[in-house]
Amino acid sequence: EKGTYPHYMLKEMDEQPTVIRKIIQAYEGDNGELTIDAEILEALRAADRLYIIAAGTSSHAGLIGKQYFEKMAGIPVEVHISSEFGYNMPLLSEKPLFIFITQSGETADSRQVLVKIKELGYPTLTITNVPGSTLSREADHTLLLHAGPEIAVASTKAYVAQIAVLALAAYVTARANGKDLEFDLKQELAIVANGIQTIIDSKDVLEDIAEDYLKIARNAFFIGRNIDFYVSLEGALKLKEISYIQAEGFAGGELKHGTIALIEEGTPVFALVTQASVALNIRGNVKEVAARGAHPCIIAMAGIDEDGDRLVIPHVHELLTPLVSVVPLQLISYYAALHRRCDVDKPRNLAKSVTVE
Ligand code: F6R
């Protein structure tokens, strides 16, 4: 099924532009506009607060989803890790809607929260890649990711699909609430699909970066500010999972409050620069680590790039940058794992779906 590909992970990363295009098609109404099921839209509009519950990569997608619902639709959102939420529930708002994000739809940590929330009688929505999965069957509503089966243990195309579907749901909700959004999400997602393709077509650059920065590294840092911070968390998780390099995702400005002590001569620091509003700040943070000997790799978006940036990624709408900026991080992890002779599709100690609590 992986055809001529050496690994499922590579195949699944390559599929990402197609996944975005499939999502656009799947959520296109008769009038050509993006739409979601009327009952789900009602549930989203009725909520005074959204509680996103997820684990691992899916929780990282949730952090981006929070930005979308808050910035586009003006609905407050909390993001919680399933394994914590189940045993340490925060105070809830009056009309919460619970959104479970789960590629597999089978994650036990997330399911146990769903069971408790149903007992409390609150409405639930599952965003999943697997129709008929446990969390899809047990929630009131389901939004599908349309990413196709994800086989590699490290989640790639499902993460991108989760972010796209969250953007879409937030956009449709915002429009239904009469918010004046000054962009056409359908068009912007099409631009994203092309942007991802451009990165995929220049894989050799990412292979070089992996060799250059990570072939013998003991640890690595991923930094960003604003939405780039959340993508940094995902970049670090990917690297840990498949290359076994200790990695941390960090908010650029927070490093100096302790973690900068770990920077040594040659420590790789991957910095994302996609948000114009904080570009100068994150570049300042890169200078701080470089002054302490770090080996910085700046990944900047076209338009706010500067001389000396290691990689320039195509320009997309500022809210949608995670869909594009995560792709080089996925590819860098993949090639780092290959350079270090790790089993990319089946990393040690991990299973594709974690069905125990
Ligand atoms: C990371 C990864 C895991 C999953 C997590 C949740 O690459 O695959 O962190 O994201 O176990 O799984 P789902 O989304 O199936 O609930």
Automatic annotation (TrEMBL):
It comes from the Bacteria. Keywords: Aminotransferase, Cytoplasm, Glutamine amidotransferase, Repeat, Transferase. It is an enzyme of class 2 (transferase). The active site is at residue 352. It catalyses: D-fructose 6-phosphate + L-glutamine = D-glucosamine 6-phosphate + L-glutamate. Residues 40-179, 209-347 form the SIS domain. One of its GO terms (molecular function) is carbohydrate derivative binding. Its main location: cytoplasm. Its EC number is 2.6.1.16. It is found in: Cytoplasm. GO terms for biological process: carbohydrate metabolic process; fructose 6-phosphate metabolic process; protein N-linked glycosylation; UDP-N-acetylglucosamine metabolic process. One of its GO terms (cellular component) is cytosol. Homodimer. Catalyzes the first step in hexosamine metabolism, converting fructose-6P into glucosamine-6P using glutamine as a nitrogen source. This is Glutamine--fructose-6-phosphate aminotransferase [isomerizing]. It comes from Lysinibacillus macroides. The lineage of its organism: Bacteria, Bacillati, Bacillota, Bacilli, Bacillales.
